[in-house]
Structure formats: C-alpha cells, structure tokens
Amino acid sequence: MKRFGTHRVVFLALLIAMGTALHVVEALLPIPLPIPGVKLGLANIVTLLAIYLYGFRDGLTVALMRVLLGSLIGGVFLAPGFLLGICGAFFSTLVMAALLRYTRCFTVIGISMAGAVGHNLGQLLAASLLLQSSAIIFYLPVLILAGIPSGIFTGYLLKTLIEHNHKTGILNYYNS
Fold first, then answer.
1. Which of 23, 61, 131, 171 has its CA 20 to 30 A from that of 157?
2. pTM of the model
3. Which H or E run includes 73?
4. Residues 136-176: pLDDT tens digits?
5. Going by C-beta distance under 8 Å and a sequence separation of 6 or more, which residues neighbour residue 130?
6. In Å, how far are 10, 27, 53, 108, 164 from 168, measured between CA atoms?
7. 3 state SS of 33
C-alpha cells in the first residue's frame, strides 16, 4: 500500500463525501422509534470501510470529517448535538479499529455492533459532561438495545459490500 498515493487520497475524499452525505440524509429521516438519540448509523459503514482499507488514522479522519462537515451543512456546528456526534464518532472508531486490528474472533457485523455501542457510550460520556451529571448513564441500556440491531444492519451492508468487492475487485484499485 502506498502511504500517500494519489488513489488513496482521492478515495479518502470520496469516503468523507459519502459519509457526510449519509450523515446529512440520516439526520433528515424520521426516526421510527420514539427513543431520543436512536438512528441507524449509516455513515459508520463508511468509517468502518476506511478502517478496513487503511487503518485507524484514516478511519478517524473520515469519521471526524463527516461529523464536522455534516454539522456545518445541518447548521448545528458546535451545538450539543455536534459535540455528542464527535465524541460518539471518536469512540466508535476507536472500538472498531481496535477490534479489527487486535482480534480475529469478530466478523465485520460484530465489529459494527461494537462500534454502535461505542458510539452510544461516547455520546453518553459527552452528555454527562455537558449536563454535569452522571445520571444520564442509566440511559445506556436503552441505547445498547437500540444500537445492536442498527450495528447488525450496517455491518451486514458493509459485509455485502466487501463480498461484492471480492468478486469485482473495485476497492483493491483504491487500496493500492
């Protein structure tokens, strides 16, 4: 893998653009469950793909840039939602990169589920700092129960993409 190859930089820019688009579109979707803070996490597909292809640093770049750009487009930059999103993205990326690098017992779906839980944990930690109260941590079981199915769904989508790549090789071109 070329460290700073043109293909890599262009593909990372495309991943940031896709992640930002998914972030913005998902913010516009009505949430089917009346549970605050619950969403599918479609943009995490792009983050996990970046980690899968290029590693933690590039995955973190994609995650943080998509949250930053998505909040600028959505008009919530530096609002509490932005701070929750950036903390969630950081924790999620950290968890997914660690599992992908240091374990062999998790599938992409399992890593995605762990990333969803990490995202929820990061958001709750940020919320407890913003509210200056640790009582919000009691909301964690609710978010975990909601995060597991969304992690399964987004992990399945990425697994399908990776399997399709093994047939077509399209991502191999961008990973050179």
1. 61
2. 0.81
3. helix 56-74
4. 888 888 888 888 888 898 899 888 888 877 666 666 555 55
5. 80, 83, 84
6. 20, 32, 16, 19, 6
7. coil
